[in-house]
Every structure is written in C-alpha cells, then in structure tokens.
Write a structure and sequence with these properties.
The protein has 409 residues and is an alpha+beta fold. 54% of the residues lie in helices and 17% in strands. The chain has a six-stranded mixed β-barrel, surrounded by four helices. A hairpin with a 4-residue loop joins strand 6 (184-189) and strand 7 (194-203). Helix 1 packs across helix 12 and helix 10 runs parallel beside helix 13. The protein is elongated, with a radius of gyration of 33 Å.
Length: 409
C-alpha cells in the first residue's frame, strides 16, 4: 500500500506508529471531547423538540384578536378650551373580529400559513348541582381546529365529538364538579344565556390550571352563549416555519389591521430559556474544541522536539519545507479524524442508551429521541479541521528547522 501513498502520508503514519502511546492518548482525548459534543447536542435537540412539541400542540402558532378598545377625550370646537378630566381605559367587551370572513379567506391564500381556524372564546360558569366553576369556553370547528391544537392526543376518556349540545372538559374540572362521561352540566355565560351540555370527552393537557378552566364546544354554541351569532373573537393559525411565526404575525398585523400574537411572543420566557440552552451548548462546544486543539498541538510540539534529528536528516536528503509542513499537518488531521470517528460513535451510543434508560413512571419515553445524521458529519469535520489548525504551529516550527543544527542537536 505504501507504493501508492505520497511520501508525506508514509512519513506521517510512520511517526504516529512509532509514538503509539502518545497517539492513543490524544485519540482518546479527542474522542472524549467529540463524544461530549455529540451527546450534549443530541440531548439538547431532543429536549428542545419535546418542549416545542408540547407547547405548539396545545396552542396555535399565531392568534389574531380584535384590537383593544381605547377611550378618547372629548373634542371641543372652541379653541383654548381645556377640560380637566381623567381618561380611563374602558373595560374590554367580548366582540367579534370585524370582517373576519374576509381576513380568513385572505390568510388561506398565504403560502406560509397551513391552517386557519376561526374560534369564539368567552368566559362562563359551569354548574353541576351545588358546585360551580369559572371556565373558558372555546367554540371551534373541530375538523379544522384539531389540526392546530391536538386535543385528540390529550383525550383520556370519551371521544372528541363536538356537536351543538356537546362539551369537552379537562380532568381537573371533571374532578371538581364530580362529573363523568355522559353527564350533563349547565354552562351560563355573562350575557345571561345558558345551555345544558353533555360531556362527550375528558382531556389532560398536562397543566392543572388549563385542565380546570379550558372547555371546548361547537362554534355555534359559543356564539349563542356570547350573543355574537356569526362572529368570532379569534382566528388561530399554524405556519410552516414555527421560528418565523413572529415575523409572519407582524406582517399579518400590518396587512389586516388586526392584532396578531405569535407563540414566540406569548411564550417569551420559554423561548428565552431555549436560546439560553442553545448558547450554553455553543459555549461547551467552543471550550471542548479548544481543549482538543491544545491537546493535539502539545503532542505535536513534543513530537517535533523528539524528532528534530529525523527532520534534519530528511531536510538534508532533499525533503522540501512544504513536505515537512504537510507531514505534521497530516498527523494533526489524522489524530483528530480518528478521535472524532470514535467519539461520534461513542456519543451516539451514549445518547441512545441514556434515552432508553430514562423512563416515565408509566414506562413511556421521557422525551422523543432526535438524532440528526448531519450532527455526526459536522462533529467529525469540525474535529478534523481543528486538528489541522492545531498542528499548524508545530508544523511551521518543524519546517523551519535548520538541518545542520537539527542533526547536531
């Protein structure tokens, strides 16, 4: 095989073989660093995907709501007339989005938007015998709305049937009212309207407050309770790129004049935490990369000192400075590449084992495992480039050695 290899490759491989102990130690160090990077990156990606899935399956990506009502001071025709009065913010009424059909039809034509669901949201009182609870009633078209908020995934009893006299409630509300599937309950709105509804499904959103207050009924039922027949209070949307939701919401607000809130805005603390995790992972990668680079550089510096006579003999035999330079650069690249392959494999196996080991009390997975093949490719390439870069300083030092001084030394 040596007949087909360039001189630089033969010399680099021979030097690595002769210093087997150093070679094995540096490969192990690189492998540990790359394994840490792969493990942490895969773990972070899986946790973030799990968090985002939980957030976005229980709320729309963008929600359109009517603009706030604002009190304006009275105007007078006579100039110079001053009115000493305090203008207070008015109480916000439940009202429909103006010309919502036109807005919904427009949004359905946008390529970035995948689902458009008009909804009616109102407050009400759930009554069962002597018990009553304050609830939020959301009127929906289930065929569209369940594509946005995955209520069927959270059903623990019954089904997601939402007809005129049906209602879906949370587990906490069912416990508080002492009701079960098939029971009837009275829903009374602030407008004075009330309906007797049958419980057809009980869900668990994983949040106690949401399970206590959230209920879902047919859109026309919520409209009747709110005395807004034909109206909607919100338009819920999903988009193709969830991270572009804020930008799309701003564009929608400018185009329609309706206030548009994205999931990024309504979950700002969560999004800040995700960014902090990403930043932490980047910092870890940088410091691990630096430790790998300094490890390779220190080994090659020692190698240059140990092999100064060999380098001098090679230079005296006519080996060019460029060839000496490439010998040590190849050593750095080969050390990093070998360590990266071992480390990427170890990191991948570690995250798979960790995922299979961590289980919830019911035996299901704690989080979905997300492994991007490009993560391994990037880790190996970055490690190889880091190894070559780390070898640059000792390589230049070796190439500049005076052959006579090296042989005498």
């Amino acid at each position: 095989m040596n007949r087909w290899l360039p001189f630089e490759w033969i010399a680099a491989i021979r030097f690595l073989k002769e210093g087997r102990t150093q070679t094995l130690f540096i490969i192990a160090a690189v492998a540990i660093g790359v394994a840490v990077i792969v493990f942490m990156s895969a773990l972070l990606a899986s946790l973030q995907a799990n968090f985002i899935k939980r957030v976005l399956t229980s709320q729309p990506h963008i929600q359109l709501i009517p603009p706030d009502e604002i009190a304006r001071p009275q105007r007078f025709d006579r100039p110079g007339l001053a009115v000493a009065a305090t203008v207070q913010r008015p109480a916000q009424r439940i009202r429909s989005i103006d010309q919502w059909q036109k807005i919904a039809a427009l949004l359905k034509t946008w390529p970035d938007i995948t689902n458009v669901s008009p909804t009616m949201v109102t407050s009400a009182l759930a009554v069962r015998g002597d018990s009553n609870r304050s609830i939020t009633v959301t009127g929906i078209d289930p065929d569209i709305y369940f594509r946005i908020v995955k209520i069927p995934d959270y059903i623990v009893a019954g089904q997601t049937r939402v007809l005129t006299d049906d209602i879906l409630i949370g587990t906490e509300l069912a416990r508080d009212l002492g009701v079960k599937l098939g029971d009837k309950m009275i829903v009374s709105a602030a407008t004075g309207a009330s309906r007797v509804l049958t419980i057809t499904g009980i869900f668990d959103l994983g949040n106690k407050a949401a399970n206590q207050r959230s209920t879902f009924v047919a859109l026309r039922t919520a409209q009747a309770l709110s005395n807004l027949v034909g109206g909607v209070t919100t338009i819920d949307l999903t988009v193709k790129d969830v991270y572009a939701a804020d930008k799309i919401a701003n564009t929608i607000g400018a185009a329609t004049g309706v206030e548009a809130d994205s999931w990024i805005k309504t979950n700002s603390q969560f999004f800040t935490a995700v960014n902090a995790q990403t930043l932490s992972n980047t910092v870890i990668r940088i410091f691990v990369g630096l430790s790998v680079a300094f490890g390779i550089a220190s080994v090659l510096v020692v190698s240059v000192i140990q092999r100064s006579k060999d380098i001098g003999i090679l230079r005296a035999m006519g080996t060019a400075q460029g060839q000496i330079l490439r010998i040590f650069l190849l050593q750095g690249g080969l050390l990093a590449l070998a360590g990266a392959i071992v480390g990427a494999s170890t990191g991948g196996c570690a995250i798979v084992f960790w995922h299979s080991y961590l289980r919830q009390p019911d035996g299901t997975e704690l989080f979905p495992l997300v492994i991007d093949p490009m993560l391994f490719v990037e880790a190996i390439l970055i490690a190889a480039v880091t190894g070559v870069a780390a070898a640059a300083f000792p390589a230049f030092g070796a190439a500049k050695l005076d052959p006579v001084v090296a042989i005498r030394g």
